[in-house]
């Protein structure tokens, strides 16, 4: 019995690892109901943890932001969740990702799913579902999320990561180009930018806008700029903790107030206000600001479209057993 127990204790995790590694080929397509047989309760598990851990608090925008920062760098492959190793850098260490949080929520969901259906649900799909639930928990729309993503075994390096994430001072042309390279058009870009109706930005990201020191300047409401300056010291002064909400009206509600802020020149970042400055997508901003349902519909469609960005063919993928590290 002792010998049998020892063998069993070794074989069980080995089999799980084999199953996970057996799913290393890139998915040709994603579809709703991907786990209908292999893990039918996957969405219930994700929603339960999200409701218990996140609710309508600040962690919901953090989880949503993780999904964006993952998909923009080599596709939606959960590479943003990987820790650094002696052989690979971590996307977490790139400057635009320095303030990312929400990793523990994803880890908790993954642990629950490993008990429910071991070595089955990818971390990339966990992140996709969790981001949708984050929006819903904040009062936003919901949608059917196609599933079947696989997890990258390697993260991008810090330079590549930084290059492929939007900057707080990007102009409209740069934003349209960056989104376009991912197969997302100007409507998708404008709708997805509405994710900034929740969450906050650090002082370093909006300082240049409120002090008028950026090379990319857009009209800003003077009283809005003055209020933000009280929270954010000028460059060179000690202290940089002045977080400010993107949407000053309803910062913890997923609605269309972000667009109404832009119309009155109260966008927090230059890259926000860029959407309402040159006429390029002004009409979309005005439409979303006037019609929250239209924004919700377009946002949901754009989230599905962004979520369909897969890693390049040939990149090694798997279903990770732990989201922060490859299986071996």
Please, could you describe this protein's structure?
There is one protein chain. With 328 residues, the protein is mostly helical. It has two domains: 7-166 and 309-318, Peroxidase, domain 1, CATH 1.10.520; 184-305, Peroxidase, domain 2. The chain has 14 helices and four strands. The strands form two sheets. Strands 1-4 form a two-stranded antiparallel ribbon.
What descriptors fit this protein?
328 residues; mainly alpha; Peroxidase, domain 1; Peroxidase, domain 2; 2 domains; two-stranded antiparallel sheet; two-stranded antiparallel ribbon; 46% helix; disordered N terminus; metal-binding
* SSE string: HHHHHEHHHEHHEHHHHE
The overall pLDDT, averaged over residues, is: 89
Number of helices: 14
CATH class of the largest domain: Mainly Alpha
CATH topology of the largest domain: Peroxidase, domain 1
**For the largest beta sheet, what order do the strands appear in spatially?**
1-4
Terminal-residue CA separation? 30 Å
**Sheet with the most strands?**
2 strands, antiparallel
The residue ranges in which pLDDT falls below 50 over 5 or more consecutive positions are 1-27
Quote the beta fraction. Answer: under 5%
Query: Helix/strand-derived class?
Result: mainly alpha
Q: What overall form do the CA principal axes indicate? A: globular
CATH architecture descriptor of the largest domain: Orthogonal Bundle
Radius of gyration: 21 Å
What is the count of distinct domains? 2
User: What's the β-strand tally?
Assistant: 4
Helix content range: 40-55%
């Amino acid at each position: 019995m002792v010998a049998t127990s020892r063998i069993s204790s070794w074989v069980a995790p080995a089999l799980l690892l084999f199953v996970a590694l057996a799913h290393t080929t890139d998915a040709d397509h994603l579809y709703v109901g991907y786990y209908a047989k292999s893990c039918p309760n996957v969405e219930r598990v994700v929603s339960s943890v999200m409701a218990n851990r996140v609710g309508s608090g600040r962690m919901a925008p953090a989880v949503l932001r993780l999904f964006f920062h993952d998909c923009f760098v080599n596709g939606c492959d959960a590479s943003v969740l990987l820790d650094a190793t002696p052989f690979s850098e971590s996307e977490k260490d790139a400057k635009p990702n320095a303030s990312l949080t929400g990793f523990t929520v994803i880890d908790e969901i993954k642990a629950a799913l490993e008990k429910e259906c071991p070595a089955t649900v990818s971390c990339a799909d966990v992140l996709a579902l969790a981001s949708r639930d984050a929006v819903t928990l904040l009062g936003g729309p919901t949608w059917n999320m196609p599933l079947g993503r696989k997890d990258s075994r390697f993260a991008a390096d810090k330079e590549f990561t930084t290059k492929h994430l939007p900057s707080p001072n990007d102009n409209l042309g740069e934003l349209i180009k960056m989104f376009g390279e991912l197969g997302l058009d100007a409507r998708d870009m404008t709708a997805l930018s509405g994710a900034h109706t929740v969450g906050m930005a650090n002082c370093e990201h909006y300082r240049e806008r409120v002090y008028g020191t950026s090379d990319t300047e857009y009209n800003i409401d003077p009283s809005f700029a003055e209020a933000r300056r009280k929270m954010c010291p000028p460059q060179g002064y000690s202290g940089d903790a002045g977080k400010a909400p993107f949407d000053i009206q309803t910062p913890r509600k997923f609605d269309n107030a972000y667009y109404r802020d832009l119309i009155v020149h109260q966008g927090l970042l230059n890259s926000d206000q860029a959407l309402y400055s040159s006429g390029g997508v002004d009409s979309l901003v005005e439409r979303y600001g006037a019609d929250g349902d239209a924004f919700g519909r377009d946002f949901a469609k754009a989230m599905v479209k962004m979520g369909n960005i897969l890693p390049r063919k040939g990149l090694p993928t798997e279903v990770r057993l732990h989201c922060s590290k490859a299986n071996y």
